[in-house]
Design a protein that fits this description.
InterPro entries: DUF1559 (IPR011453), N_methyl_site (IPR012902), Pilin-like (IPR045584). This is Prepilin-type cleavage/methylation domain-containing protein. It holds the Pfam family SBP_bac_10. The chain is of the alpha+beta class. It has one domain. It is 26% helix and 19% strand. The chain has 7 helices and 12 strands. It is globular, with a radius of gyration of 25 Å.
Length: 327
């Protein structure tokens, strides 16, 4: 009797098979939940990115209200550097809208008399502005500064000056590389240097003849200083001109490039791709399958990788009067 009573109080243990079954069930549950968690995080990052771009668009509207024009994508003019020597002064539109995006303190630090590539502005241009960055963009955000007006449009990365700036993921359309019908009926590559809203002259809302709801103001061009092509990070650039666009204080009006289907050639007579091909000078994001844009009316939209080149070109040009279909 004593032995039976002792057996009744003995605690049963998991067998090895039962333990393996439990571990397998937990593994399956984690495998099912992890993609959902990652998707939820990306949705939150994409929403934050969209909000950032909306704030920049609103700041551009406030700039227009104050000065009766939208900011130019970049200003380039003859001036004097902080060393007292004659130079080209270059400033981008994101630096110009700082007072309208709760950036007055940084605006006071950034000396617009000297431009973004002057040594005197290093403390300002190396500060990160949260509203100018997409949370989905990976990697280090400090990048070399390249200003062709000062270094002679070199392609040699060894000629880059020893100064840096914090990258932005948002740019404006200054001009467009695209294909156009020739008299022979063939497609030829052309470049319209100031067809976008954020060109070097600046635009008024009255200049946007296609309508503010049909014209891009801002677009994502993420990932600088890293070079990304079709979802894959590339080796460090060997052409210094890759860094022409990138710093938030710099040359933010982009002459947008078209690309071949394989992403190996830009600006050619058969290049018709724009979105998520290459982040050198084209729309590129880390939101799967799409990029976010801000239209001139301040609304945010998304463009998928598969949107036609014709629609993207028509959205980027402010007064071509072409009808834009569904996208």
């Amino acid at each position: 009797m004593g032995f039976a009573k002792q057996n009744q109080h003995r605690r049963s243990a998991f067998t090895l098979v039962e333990l393996l079954v439990v571990i397998a069930i937990i593994g399956v549950l984690v495998g099912l939940l992890l993609p959902a968690v990652q998707a939820a995080r990306e949705a939150a990052r994409r929403l934050q990115c969209s909000n950032n771009m909306r704030q920049i668009g609103l700041a551009c509207h406030n700039y227009h209200s104050a000065l009766r024009t939208l900011p130019p994508g970049r200003l380039v003019y003859d001036g004097t550097g902080s060393t007292g020597n004659p130079t080209k002064v270059v400033t981008g539109f994101l630096a110009m809208i700082l007072p309208y995006i709760e950036g007055s303190n940084l605006h006071d630090t950034y000396n617009q008399h000297y431009g973004f590539d002057d040594i005197a502005n290093q403390p300002a241009v190396n500060r990160q502005v949260p509203s100018f960055s997409c949370p989905s963009a990976p990697g280090e955000r400090t990048m070399p500064i390249y200003a062709g007006w000062k270094v002679g449009w070199t392609t040699d990365v060894n000629m880059l000056p020893d100064i840096t700036g914090m990258a932005t993921d948002y740019q404006g359309v200054r001009g467009m590389h695209y294909l156009q019908d020739s008299p022979t009926g063939d497609k030829v590559h052309v470049f319209d240097s100031d067809c976008g809203i954020l060109n070097e002259k600046g635009s008024r809302f009255a200049d946007i003849l296609d309508g503010t709801s049909n014209t891009i103001l801002l677009f994502e061009m993420s990932g600088k200083p890293g070079h990304w092509k079709m979802g894959r990070q590339q080796p460090p650039p060997t052409n210094a001109q890759f860094y022409s666009y990138g710093p938030w204080a710099g040359n933010n009006g982009v002459g947008v490039y078209n690309w071949s289907d394989d992403g190996l050639v830009k600006g050619c007579d058969t290049c018709e791709q724009y979105i998520n091909v290459d982040n050198e000078a084209s729309p590129y994001s880390f939101h799967p399958g799409l990029v976010t844009i801000v239209l001139a009316d301040g609304s945010t939209r998304t463009l998928t990788d598969s949107v036609s080149s014709e629609i993207y070109i028509n959205l980027s040009r402010k007064n071509d009067r072409n009808v834009i279909g569904e996208y």
